[in-house]
Amino acid sequence: MAAGKGMRRLVRLLLLEEEQAERALAASIATARELEAGITAAHGREQMGRGLVRLSAGAGEPLDRVAGLEEVKAGERIRQALLPRLAEAEMIVVARREQYLNKRVERRQAETVVQEAEAGAAREASRRNQESLDDMYLGRMRRDAVAHPGR
Q: What is the CATH number of the domain that holds 122?
């Protein structure tokens, strides 16, 4: 039961599918990280606005206070807009990770089948070779027994 070209081709195809799933997973992880960075930046913008409000309260600068409040609002709006997108991106990461792992298992199972088939073929070839050697040896012993009956 030798592993045919079709099985080896299947393993190569499964490897390509696994690599494609891995790239899709990496892309979705990068997207999630970008969204997290955006949320962090929005939080920083809020903090900066709050700091500006505090400074303006001590200095008595009404324009700085208004600017600070607007920064807080803008940061909050951005953060609120990005949070649902991040949740969706994280769900996509989970789904793609599962898809990648399934492709990996599928490829490894196919490789195992091919390896077992090749090992079986090697054992069968070795058995046939040994059988051939045994037949040759027995034939030689029979010829010797016929040629030299008293031995």
A: 1.10.287
